[in-house]
Amino acid sequence: MCGELCWTFETYFNATAIIDIAFVAAVFFALSLLLRGTQAVPLLRGVLVVLLIVGLTATVLPFTAMRWLLSNVITMLAIAIPIILQPELRRLMERLGRSGVFTFGRPRETEAIRMKVIDEICTAAARLSERRHGALIVIERDTTLQEYIDTGVLLDSEVSPQLLLTIFWPKTELHDGAVILRGGKIAAAACVLPLASGRQFTDRKLGTRHRAALGVSEVSDGICVVVSEETGAISVANGGRMIRRLDATRLKTVLQAFYGESERTPRLPTVIRGLLRRGNAAPPNKPPA
Description:
The structure is a single chain. It contains 11 helices and 7 strands. It has helices at residues 2-12, 15-35, 40-60, 64-84, 86-97, 111-131, 146-149, 161-167, 208-219, 248-260, 270-279; strands spanning 135-139, 153-158, 178-182, 185-191, 223-227, 234-238, 241-246.
C-alpha cells in the first residue's frame, strides 16, 4: 500500500504537476476576488447547490433519466451562464484591460491638471448646491466613455465653475444630462448615461441623476459627482458605490483620493473607507438626497 502511494506521488505529482495545480488554483482565486460582492456570487452558489444535489441523487440512486438530465443540463449551463453573467464578465474584462498591461501608451493628465479640475468641480458643486440646481459631472479615467459622449453636445472646452453653472442652469438646453470630462476638459454636455439596475439600486427615493451616476460607475472606472435638485446634497459615485451628503471640503477630499492622487496612492485613506461604509446608510432623521 505504501509502495503504491509512493508510486502515485512520483508519477503524477512531479514539479510540473504542482506548478500546474498552483496556476489553476491562482486563476480560480483571482476569479473569486473579482466576482466577490457581485450578483454572480449567489447565482453561482445556487447553481452549484442544485448540481451537487442532482449529481449525488443520480450517483447514489439508479436513475437513468436523472443522469441523462444532469449531463444535458451541464452542457446547457456552459452556454447559459456566460449569457446570464454578461455584465459581471464585461466588468471583469474591463478591469483586466485597465490593469496597465495594455494601457502603457495612453497619455494621462498631470497632477496640476487633476488638481485644477478638482478645484473647479468643488467650486461649481458648492454653488450649485446652494442654488438647488441639479448636476451630474463624470470624470473619465482609463475606461473610455466615448459612446456616452456621442449622445451629448460636443464642447471640448476648459473646465470652469462659470461654464458648469451655465450648463446646469435649469433654463438652458444642456442642463438635462451629464457633463463628461476628458483630459482635463469638458468633452460634452447633455450626455445620456446608463441607469443602475433595479436589483442593485436599493434606495428608491433617489432620483434619475443618482441612478445614472451609479450606472456609469458600474460599467466604467469613471468618477461621478451628483448634486441633488431637491435637497442640494452632493454625492460621489465610484465603482458602483455612492458616498452621499458631502460638502465642498469633503468633496475635495474624496476627489483627491479617487482622482487627484490616484497615480500615487492605490489604497484609499481611512477617512474615505469610512465614508464608503456610511455612504449608503441614511441618518435616522434626515431625508435621503
